[in-house]
Amino acid sequence: MEMQLAAVLASLALGGALLVLVFGKWWQPLADADRRVKELADAVEALLQLRSELLKVEPAPPESDQLARAWLRRVQEAQDEVASLKARHDGGQLYVLRLVQYFVSTAPVAGSAEKQLKAVRALREQGEALLEAALSTPQAPPPLLRQPEELELPPGTSLTRPYLNEALRFLGDCDAALGVWGAGGVGKTTVLTHVRDACGLVAPFDHVLLVAASRDCTVAKLQREVVGVLGLRDAPTEQAQAAGILSFLRDKSFLLLLDGVWERLDLERVGIPQPLGMVAGRVRKVVVASRSEAVCADMGCRKKIKMECLSEEDAWNLFEANAREETIHRHPRIPALSRQVASECKGLPLSLVTVGRAMSSKRTPEEWGDALDALKKTKLSSAPGPDKIAHPIVKFCYDNLENDMARECFLACALWPEDHNISKDELVQCWTGLGLLPELADVDEAHRLAHSVISVLEASRLVERGDNHRYNMFPSDTHVRLHDVVRDAALRFAPGKCLVRAGAGLREPPREEALWRDARRVSLMHNGIEDVPAKTGGALADAQPETLMLQCNRALPKRMIQAIQHFTRLTYLDMEETGIVDAFPMEICCLVNLEYLNLSKNRILSLPMELSNLSQLKYLYLRDNYYIQITIPAGLISRLGKLQVLELFTASIVSIADDYIAPVIDDLERSGAQLTALGLWLDSTRDVARLARLAPGVRARSLHLRKLQDGTRSLPLLSAQHAAEFGGVQESIREMTIYSSDVEEIVADARAPRLEVIKFGFLTKLRTVAWSHGAASNLREVAIGACHAVAHLTWVQHLPHLESLNLSGCNGMTTLLGGAADGGSAAGELVTFPRLRLLALLGLPKLEAIRRDGGECAFPELRRVQTRGCPRLRRIPMRPAASGQCKVRVECDKHWWGALQWASDDVKSYFAPVLI
Predict the structure, then answer these.
(1) What's the CA gap between 206 and 200, in Å, rounded?
(2) Which residues form a coiled coil (predicted)?
(3) Fold designation for 310-400
(4) Per-residue model confidence (pLDDT) at position 885
C-alpha cells in the first residue's frame, strides 16, 4: 500500500515537473510581452514629456521649424500606434486566450513592442537634439508695431497710463501670462479694456478676447463667454465645446484677457490651446485680473502689476471731472466741501466716479454739507475687507438717486449673474413684471420711461454699458451690467431679504433653510439645476418668495416644479428655457396671486383651462414654443380679466394648427379685453383685419403671418390704400414676420411709426418690395431668407435707423442695392448706412456686387460681417472707418477672404477675419 502511494506521489511530482517545464516555456513569451509593453509605455510617456518641453520654446530658423513639425507629427503617429498595440495586448487577460492569441497572431505583441520601442527611442534622441537647438537659440518676442509711449490713447486713460503702458509692454516680451491685481473698484477692468482697444496697434493678434470670469466661474460658463466673443456655435457638452474652441484657436495668435478671476481656472479644459507663450511662430498670451496676487500666481503669472488707489491729486482730478468744474465753483463754499467729499472716497476710482456723478446735480453749499455728513455716517458693517470703502459709497449714491422708482429698478439689476450683460429689453420686461414702473395704457410710453431710468442709472455710473456679442459691440448701447462691487453692495443693503445664486454653477437649489426663510426675491437663473435632494425639499416647503427667477436652467427637475405650487405668495415667475416638455406644469395653476408668467422657449403642447385660476395674471409670455401646434381652450383668455400683455408664438416656420388662433380672437372680440401688447401667429389677413377693428383697446405689437390661406398675392397690411381696414394694426405693430406664403408683391407706403423689425422667409414668389421713404422709417432689423425671386433690396438704403441686415438663401439676388431706376442713389453718390452694425450675406450664389453702379458705401457703425456661400462677391466697396473705431469682425471662408478685393490697404486694416 505504501509502495503504491509512493508511486502515485512520484508520478504526480514527475507530471508537475513536466507541466512546470512545458508551461514555463509557454509562459515566457507572455511574460516578455508584458515587460516589453510596459517598457514601451514608459518610453512613450517620456517622449510625450519631451514634446511638452519642446512646445514651450520656439525654434527660430525656418528649417528647424520644419524639422520640429515633422518630429511632432511622427510623435503623434507613434502615440497612436502604441495605443493600438496596447489595446491588442490588454484585450485578452485570461491565460488560455493569451496563449491562443500568441500562437495564432501573425504579429506577436512582444515582437511588435520591441520594434516600436526602438522607433520611440530614436524619436526621443531626435527630440532631445531639437530641444537643445531650440534652447540655444534666443527666442524672438512678438514684434511691437509701436511703443506704448507712442500711442494716442483716449483722454480717459491718463490716470491708468502707467499700468497700461506696463501691460502693453508685456505684449512685446516673451512672458506668457501677466497678472493685474488690486482691490475691487481700483480700475483693473478699465486697464483690460484699454489693452483690448490698443493692442492691435502694439502687437499682431488674430483674436483678442476680453471675458468675465467672475465669482463661482465654471468651465461651462467661461466657455460660453469665449464662444460669445468669438462668434462660434454652442456645443452640447463641455468636452465638445472645448474641442471646438481648441480647433478654432489652435493655429492662431490670441490674447485672452480674463477679468474678475477669483480662483484658479483650468484653461485647458475650457479649450484654450496649451502651452501659452511663443509656439511655432504663434503668440498665445493671457492677462489675468484678480483681487488676489496669489490667484495670479496660481494662474501662472510670473510678472504681476499691483494697482493702487489714486494719489490725492489724481483722485481730485477724477472727482472734479465727474462732478463738473462749473458745479464745484458755483458757490465760494463748495470747493472746500468738495475736497472733503472727494477725500471720503479714499482714492478709489469707482467711488470717485460714482460720488462725483451723484454730486454733479448739487447746487448749494447746504446740499454738499448734507452729502458730506451722509458719507461720514454711511456704514455697512457686513462689508468684506477689500470692499469696506466701496460699499458705503455705493449706498450713498443709491440714496441720492432721484426717486424710489430708480432705486428699485437699480436693485433689480443685481438679480442677474455677476458681470452678466443684461439686455435692456429683458430688463424693461422684468421691471414691468415686478411692478416697478407705473402702469401706462401706452406700452411705448412705458418703454420710453424705462429707458429713461436706464439712462439715469448709466449717468450715475451705478450701471455700466455692457457688451453685445451679436453686433461685436464693446461696449454696446443695447446691454448694461453691474460692476461686481456695486452688485455686492446692492444685494447687501436691498430692503427685504433676497436669495440670489444666479450663474453660480448650481446643480441643485440651496439646501439651507435659513437662506429660504423670509426671502422675498429668489434668483437662481442661469444655472444647471437638475436635481432636488430630499434635504432641499424641507427648505423649499417653508419658503414663500414673491419673485422666483429660474430662467435658463435647461433641465429643471419635476420636484422643483412641484415645490413651486406651495409658493402661494408668488407674483412673478420666470421659467423661460427650463426644459418643460409636452404637458403644461399644472402646479403653476395653484399660484393664484401670480401677475407675471414667462414660459418661453419650452415644449408645451397645450394651455389648460385651469390657467384661468390665475385671476391676477397681467403678463403671459409663451414665445418660441418648440411645437408647431398649441391648443388654447375657448374662453381661457376672456377669463384672465386683468391680462395686459399676451405673447403666444411657436418657434417653427411650418403651418400651425387651424384652431390655434380662432379661440383667442373670439375671446378678445366677445370680452372686450384691453391688451397693451399682443403677439400672435396668424394664417389669414382676415384675422389681421379682425384685430385691427379691436384697436386701440387691443394693440397688436407682434404679428407672424404664416401660410396665408386667403389667396393673397399682394400683401395689403402695410399699404396706405387699406389704411381703413388695417389702420389699427399699422399704428401699433412693432414686429412683423411673413413666412411660407404665395405673396408676390409687398407695397409698404402706409404710416407704421412703431415698426422696428420685419422678417420675410420662404416667400418663393416674392418679386417686388416697394418701400416708400416715409413708411416705417424706424426699422432697426431686416431679415430676408429663401426669397429666391428677389433681385435686389434697394429700399433698405433709405432706413436711417437700420442696425441689422440679414440675407440668406436668396438664390436670385445679384446685387444688394439697385441703381437710380430702382429708387436707389445716382451713380457716384455715396450711400451711407449710418447705424448698420450687423451685415449677414449667407447663401447668395449669384450676388456679385453691393451696388449695381459699383459706387462706394459708408458703414460708420459696422461691427460684424458674416459671409458664406457668396462665391461671386469679390469686393465690398467700403470707405475707411473713422480713426479709433474697433475692428470689424468678418466671419467668412478662408479662400473667400484671400480673394477679396479692397479699395485700399487702409480699408482692409479695419477688418479682422474670423476664418470658418
Answers:
(1) 9
(2) 30-88
(3) Helicase, Ruva Protein; domain 3 (1.10.8)
(4) 57
